[in-house]
Amino acid sequence: MIGMKQRQHGRLGNYLFQVNFVMQLALATGTDFMLPAFKRDTTIRPKQRFSSGFLSAEAACLTEEFLMESDTDEILRETRRHLDLGKSIEVPVWSNPSESYLKVALRDPSELFRVGSSLAGGVLSKRLRAASPKKSEIQTVAMHFRGTDYHSWDATAVMPASYYMDALEMAREKFQIPIQSVALFTDDPESETARALSSLGIKINSRNFNRDFMSIMNSDLVIASPSTFSFWAALLGSKNIIFPMLWAERKAAAGSDFWTNALGNSLPFIDITCT
Prior knowledge:
Helix content: 25-40%
Shape: elongated
Largest sheet: 6 strands, parallel
Strand order of the largest sheet: 11-10-9-12-13-14
Number of strands: 14
Strand content: 15-25%
Radius of gyration: 19 Å
Distance between the termini: 42 Å
Order of helices and strands: EHEEEEHHEEEEHHEHEHEHEHHE
CATH class of the largest domain: Alpha Beta
CATH architecture of the largest domain: 3-Layer(aba) Sandwich
Number of domains: 2
């Protein structure tokens, strides 16, 4: 059995990195996995059957230090060694959860998760797209701006309106995208950025957490804030995403393999542009 003793800190995007790692590791080793029970209104959950709960204290822990220093083959060998001894495997809480994405990336996450949203008429299921839309087919753009907690967490993660407009202009050099096809999704509609974008004719479509995730996922191109929420929506949807260059460069310079690969558009299963 592979699972966790503690849920990843943070919101949905951070947790999905941890869940994805558990599933990737379990599928690669042919092992069952265990996850904490998902809330009834959760937008996204695994396709595969799993046991609900946390692992017991006897599970062998793959430490974050070991995982960061090891490649995929080393991680799989160590996992199989513990499993052959009859031990369960604990996946840790990551200090930088996005780093886990590169460690065991053997299956496209869109094959592992199903997505739906609790609506008045029941559960609306959405088909996950297996590949990016053809460039000529890009017709809808989702901008994601995260403010609120970012102001106190890291003010440099609060993107100005100029970033979104520069990214949109870059996209419009290649694609015919009318401003009416661009929507802003945000947790901070009264922010300076949101008001500036709205004044330019970009509609704010935010309703609630689940609907926003679904809407971003079903857009053809995502212009993202430095947020794991918009990353996962794009990863499970169109797989086309634009990230802020300055943020990616700063994180890469600090040693992040995830952001180094993002800058080079070499993250698996997603097409990333930084601007």
